[in-house]
Write a structure and sequence with these properties.
With 323 residues, the protein is of the alpha/beta class. 39% of the residues lie in helices and 15% in strands. It has an eight-stranded parallel beta barrel with strand order 1-2-3-6-7-10-11-12, surrounded by six helices. Strand 2, helix 4 and strand 3 form a beta-alpha-beta unit. Helix 3 packs across helix 4 and helix 7 runs parallel beside helix 8. 47% of the residues are buried.
């Protein structure tokens, strides 16, 4: 497991990672992103921004970096950063397949990505990822598995993934939607030759949607590394959008609402890596304060009251505009 590399890390931020969804393409669904990125969203501008974020994250102890085929040029940007820094050999690199980026570097595209969990898509995107990242790719995840995903039942796909795992690639999956817990439990049951196929799970978990928590605890108990995405609910838990209770606790702790939101997730014993989706180095620095925020039981209880019904949470997420 490549995540064993993180076990020797001693910095407070070793359980925080950097996700590149917000900076690998010009459009995304994070609140406040128009202000964060400004007008220049050219390929070179976002390449430079990504490299600055990666440099800042690495300097501050972050050792897991997460991309995807559908995050525009995120793999390309990450690969370029790695080539320029050959001495950086203590990190874990993850990417995802299953969505194809279709926006053609536009923010007003009718569709920004198209989902397809077929074996043909895996083979195509695996080759694309390999061309960019080569042997620096440690973890390859099925992107956004839901209970009805054919990736959970396609035996030919499972055999291909198991073969990749036998060659040293760690195989995982991510989930999305109101039925994340069902998808996680279904994936835990997938085996090839009596051996579990998946070694990691990446799921949405935050103050507003805690529904996947019990299933994630089961995954950790089964030996999977748990990676948490969208810990700030696509900006809904960051200032100035955060609920009053989050802002109040942030004031008590002397940090931003974003740090409180991520500290809430880090408090979970099963959370192996919690992703920052920062778009600026200042945001990243604020996010990383989560590692030293010590929420007490009373503060955690106040945050627990903010959880929404999963269907409502995901309906609202689906209504967020692409900025």
């Amino acid at each position: 497991m490549p995540f064993a590399r993180l076990a020797s890390a001693t910095t407070p931020t070793c359980h925080l990672g950097l996700g590149l969804a917000a900076v690998g393409r010009p459009g995304y669904i994070t609140l406040g992103r128009a202000h964060d990125l400004g007008e220049d969203r050219s390929v070179e501008a976002l390449r430079t921004r990504t490299h600055e974020l990666l440099d800042a994250a690495y300097a501050q102890g972050v050792r897991y970096f997460d991309a995807a085929r559908s995050y525009g040029r995120s793999e390309e940007f990450l690969a370029g950063w790695l080539r320029a820094r050959p001495a950086v050999d203590d990190i874990v690199v993850g990417s995802k397949w299953g969505y194809t980026y279709t926006a053609d570097w536009r923010t007003d595209a009718e569709a920004h990505e198209v989902k397809d969990h077929s074996l043909a898509t895996y083979e195509r995107q695996r080759a694309e990822s390999a061309e960019l990242l080569g042997d620096r790719l440690d973890l390859y995840q099925i992107h956004s598995v839901t209970p009805e995903s054919p990736a959970l039942t396609d035996k030919e796909l499972h055999a291909e993934l198991a073969e990749a795992a036998a060659r040293g690639l760690t195989v995982g999956f991510s989930t999305s939607g109101p039925a994340q817990a069902d998808a996680i439990r279904a994936a835990l049951a997938v085996t090839v030759g009596s051996e579990p196929l998946f070694r990691t799970v990446q799921a949405t978990y935050n103050v507003l949607d805690t529904s996947a928590g019990p299933a994630l605890a089961e995954a950790r108990e089964a030996g999977l590394t748990v990676i948490i995405k969208e810990g700030m609910a696509n900006g809904r838990l960051a200032d100035p959008h955060a609920p009053a209770a989050v802002r109040a606790i942030a004031e008590e702790a002397g940090v931003g609402s974003d740090a409180v939101a991520l500290a809430f997730v880090l408090r979970r014993p099963w959370a192996g890596v919690v992703l920052s989706g920062a778009a600026t180095t200042n945001q990243l620095a604020s996010n990383l304060h989560a590692a030293v925020v010590d929420l007490d039981d009373e503060q955690a209880a106040r945050l627990d009251t903010l959880a929404e019904e999963p269907g409502m949470y995901w309906e609202r997420r689906g209504q967020l505009p692409w900025h």
